[in-house]
């Protein structure tokens, strides 16, 4: 390949795809956490986190509900800048270069599966040898993480190919990390089984991202002709 970085799909795809990319991760993550909170599989919220937030922001006199609402609002908006900036570094390669090139050869499903598996394996060293894990056994976390990443790659590939831009992927990636890692998981108190359901290493996101993958797979006909193949 002789692709130059300036030839990647940098063009802005419009507000519609930006909002889709921002909201889809919330759409597949929030139901998992709501089920966990409402059924007692995990607690809402973590008292230690609430104390930490109050001290960090100087909100010691605020009612807990207002404090948490402000925390979520500020994190979901201002926090997105940092999350998307870091995600962009990965997405230039994964969705900016790899996905468009693969789609010319193997179609939509092949592109999503291959790029998703490569993306998952790329994370394996920090899953196995660092602290990027919610505390589940390695085999369980790897299986859940891999399926979730491949399923998410269907959504990411669809957004990229449909919009013709890498920006929706960067927004999606940042939004995923933001809502799951910075808001929903920290707000959840572990009751023992919780870590097997929530986060990127639990079964919950496996189910919801697979549903998302099926939805976009059925809409692959909306993609450019070469990518719309199975």
Report what the structure shows:
Helix 3 (64-129) crosses helix 5. It is built from six helices and two strands. It has one domain (12-44, 80-222). It is globular. The protein has helices at 15-39, 47-57, 64-129, 138-163, 167-184, 203-218, and strands at residues 42-44, 188-190. A two-stranded antiparallel sheet has the order 1-2. 70% of the residues lie in helices and 3% in strands. The longest helix is centred in the middle third of the chain and has 66 residues, at 64-129. The chain has 230 residues and is mostly helical.
Proportion of strand residues: under 5%
Morphology call: globular
How many structural domains? 1
Strand order of the largest sheet: 1-2
Rounded average pLDDT: 91
What series of H and E elements makes up the topology? Answer: HEHHHHEH
The largest sheet, given as strand count, sense and whether it forms a barrel, is:
2 strands, antiparallel
Percent of residues in helices comes to: over 70%
Radius of gyration, in angstroms, nearest whole number = 18 Å
* Poorly predicted runs of 5 or more residues: none
Please report the number of helical segments.
Answer: 6
Number of strands: 2
* Distance between the first and last residues' Cα: 24 Å
């Amino acid at each position: 390949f002789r692709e130059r970085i300036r030839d990647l799909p940098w063009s802005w795809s419009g507000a519609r795809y930006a909002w889709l990319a921002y909201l889809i991760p919330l759409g597949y993550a929030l139901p998992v956490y709501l089920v966990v909170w409402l059924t007692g599989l995990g607690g809402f919220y973590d008292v230690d986190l609430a104390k930490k937030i109050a001290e960090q922001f100087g909100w010691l006199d605020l009612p807990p509900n207002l404090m948490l609402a402000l925390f979520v609002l500020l994190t979901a908006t201002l926090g997105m800048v940092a999350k998307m900036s870091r995600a962009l570094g990965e997405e230039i390669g994964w969705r900016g270069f790899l996905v468009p090139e693969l789609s010319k050869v193997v179609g939509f499903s092949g592109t999503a599966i291959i790029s998703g598996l490569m993306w998952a394996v790329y994370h394996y060293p920090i899953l196995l040898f660092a602290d990027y894990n919610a505390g589940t056994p390695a085999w369980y976390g790897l299986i859940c993480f891999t399926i979730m990443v491949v399923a998410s790659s269907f959504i990411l590939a669809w957004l990229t190919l449909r919009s013709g831009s890498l920006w929706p992927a960067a927004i999606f990636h940042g939004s995923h990390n933001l809502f799951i890692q910075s808001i929903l998981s920290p707000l959840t108190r572990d009751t023992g089984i919780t870590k097997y359901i929530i986060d990127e290493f639990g079964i919950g996101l496996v189910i919801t991202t697979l549903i998302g993958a099926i939805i976009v797979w059925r809409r692959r006909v909306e993609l450019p002709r070469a990518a719309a193949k199975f």
